[in-house]
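Recall the central idea of this unit: under ordinary conditions, the amino acid sequence of a chain determines the structure it adopts. In this exercise we apply that idea directly, starting from the sequence alone.
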Amino acid sequence: MTIRITSYGAAKGVTGSCHLLEVESLKVLIDCGMFQGQEEEKNYEPFPFDPKDIDYLILTHAHIDHCGRIPLLVKEGFKGKILCTKPTAQIARIMLLDASRVMEETYRSRLKKAERLGEEVNPPLYEELDVLESFEHFRSPYISYHKWYNLTPKVKFMLKDAGHILGSAFVQLDINGTLITFSGDLGNRGKPIVKDPEEPERTEYLFVETTYGDREHKSFEESKKEFEDAVLETLYGGGNVLIPSYALERAQDILFVLREMFNRDILPECQVFLDSPLAIKATRIFLQNPEFFDRETYRIFKERDPFSFPYLKFTRSVEESKKINDIKSGAIIIAGSGMLTGGRILHHLKHNLWREECSLIFVGYQPRGTLGRKIIEGAKKVRVLGEEIAVKARVYTINGFSSHADRRELASWTSKAQPERAFLIHGEEDKMNAFGVYLKDKYGIESYIPSFGETLEF
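Accordingly, the structure predicted from this sequence is:
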């Protein structure tokens, strides 16, 4: 029985995760994510397979670079079932509806400029109705961890907790006795809220992410202390704290830490704004699924809301968001997007980035080509909403908040799978190469980096 696997995303790149598994007549996709940053134009290329032929889509988690093209897949003819955990389905719904809204707004904005220049602009990949139609394909009841599900008499799969975000999973496929594992995105150990990644079964072939394959994070406790110091220094110095944050997981982690600071009586009186309707919705989904929390957070949940404290304000409307910019000191502003590629955070940057007493705290990965990456790499001036802004605020990069495992954790997890061969995906190519060398030197595991569209046969 020949097994074919082709990577049509996250192959020598970080975004657009999409891997096609073919066994006899069965065709299964592992994720169908959106390309971001420098790879964005790939979203407009035709799928390199016929969506009508896909029987199943196994979704590892609801980050947009793993689920973002699902409505497009359905729009192009996908008729199969989407398999995932309950939180993944719930979060994917709000993420995809938000993505459709952002694409429509971006299109309208770019269209006006393009018309004046006599140029063309790409239309949105899909609309809200396409998102809603895609949810008719999500299997109900949802997939549970640690249970085998049959796709055919010879092919079955199991999901286990990847510890990355709420409901995230890695995928183990048993194909007539051959075990193949896709890591999805693996979480950073010791984080609040979600559990640590589970260990994989022994597997013949392992496809493992390498986002941070070239470095090691500080521990979460060290990073939390660094975060607390940055926040307190800024507040006592009379400035505002800007935190570009992904609406999912990172925003909840930050609220959790700020609540702890309040409870320990070290957070001075201030105003904390969760300035993201998407993050507010995601937080509500977290509270609906406490059984996916780690033990300590679940214990807190039984007593009180683990994310709420008196200084916190949810700003849902644009008008509420604009009013925040009247505040010159004593504000902690958590807003998207986490990569500074759009969203409300840009308006807050425009009002605060040039002020020396303010700070900008990055708590997430910044891909090449993004505004966040330019600032981290030391740009003195950046263009924000059409205006050149000086970068004078203090810039902090705190990687222990990352929801991705670092090099040491990735390699340890890979070694426990004892693969005959590891295939490196979801990372920048230099990081993949560095991780491959580390994996070989430390554990003697051979690895290979598949190219986009390259088919592997087993």
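The two ends are 9 Å apart (CA to CA).
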